[in-house]
Amino acid sequence: MNLDALPRKMYTEGATPIEKAERLTRAFGGPDLYVKRDDQLGLTEGGNKTRKLEFLIADALTKGADTVITAGAIQSNHCRLTLSACVKEGLNCRLVLEENEAPQYDTYSTGNYLIYQLLDEHATEIVANGTDMEAALERAAEEERSRGRVPYIIPVGGSNAVGMTGYAACAAEIASQSEGLGVAFDYVVCASGSGGMQAGLVAGFASMDWRPDVLGMSVIKPENDQQALVHKLANETAAHLRIGAEISREQVRIFDECLAPGYALPSAAMKEAVKLTAQSEAILLDPVYSGKAMAGLYALIRDGFFREQDRVLFIHSGGTPALYAYAPFFHQQ
Ligand SMILES: Cc1ncc(COP(=O)(O)O)c(C=O)c1O
């Protein structure tokens, strides 16, 4: 896998740290837990989309675009970071945000929604829950074309082959850090939403001799549907990067216990995971992705899934601003 020839903008200085979670490891009595701090990636408040945007924004600029259009939920980390990259590059940005199905906590006053307003109060457009988001993106692009602009659409979550390249690059970064630390991880654990982070990691590791098992904690779809999605995306990434390896469905491992009661809906297990991680390692997770994924990891540890000597790397994919939008939930007893 050679990424050097691909257009790329660098938004982070160097590699994100890998920290040993000493107190958590001791609390559980093994496996050895490590955290990759992708919450410390560049752009406003960091998080996993920054890696995808390095390739997506470079692609938009290469294609002569002056306007980037993307979509997400009201509290979308992907939309926050896309807008942040656009501000930095002097590009116009349009965010199509899907209304929540039911009112939720402080969704419209704080967290990512507040950050959109601070970065550019004209960027957001809210559409009804259940809107066909692909069609909404196309409509927005058509409007921009009629104004003489050159739009570039980024799909929800930035999970196309160009964006997923960011996580294939992350696999290479982990391999190099693993060598430096002298720690060969047996497992890499991450949240699996639009699926691009997991797919990029699986494709990236498929290009190497060293291959930790990537465990995706599904936060949107049930296991089978998510596995089919990530399998397709991983093969798209492998083809895009000419990795020359077919990724089997078995290489895509999904766990969906942490998904309940549904996407972006908080659970007692998520709250426990967020508090335990904060109180043991002083690391803040988020309520929608990394908090649920960590709850899934803690459940696997408690179920005896790992051996005591296993080395497990959890990708902290960011999302912390959304924590503030869920403050009332954390105050509830
Ligand atoms: C903080 C955070 N973690 C994890 C994910 C999931 O990544 P992916 O959509 O690539 O599966 C997202 C997606 O929005 C996210 O914002």
UniProtKB/TrEMBL annotation:
<feature type="modified residue" description="N6-(pyridoxal phosphate)lysine">
    <location>
        <position position="49"/>
    </location>
</feature>
<keyword id="KW-0663">Pyridoxal phosphate</keyword>
<dbReference type="InterPro" id="IPR001926">
    <property type="entry name" value="TrpB-like_PALP"/>
</dbReference>
<comment type="similarity">
    <text>Belongs to the ACC deaminase/D-cysteine desulfhydrase family.</text>
</comment>
<protein>
    <submittedName>
        <fullName>D-cysteine desulfhydrase</fullName>
    </submittedName>
</protein>
<dbReference type="InterPro" id="IPR036052">
    <property type="entry name" value="TrpB-like_PALP_sf"/>
</dbReference>
<dbReference type="InterPro" id="IPR027278">
    <property type="entry name" value="ACCD_DCysDesulf"/>
</dbReference>
<dbReference type="GO" id="GO:1901605">
    <property type="term" value="P:alpha-amino acid metabolic process"/>
</dbReference>
<dbReference type="GO" id="GO:0019148">
    <property type="term" value="F:D-cysteine desulfhydrase activity"/>
</dbReference>
<feature type="domain" description="Tryptophan synthase beta chain-like PALP">
    <location>
        <begin position="12"/>
        <end position="318"/>
    </location>
</feature>
<dbReference type="Pfam" id="PF00291">
    <property type="entry name" value="PALP"/>
</dbReference>
<feature type="active site" description="Nucleophile">
    <location>
        <position position="76"/>
    </location>
</feature>
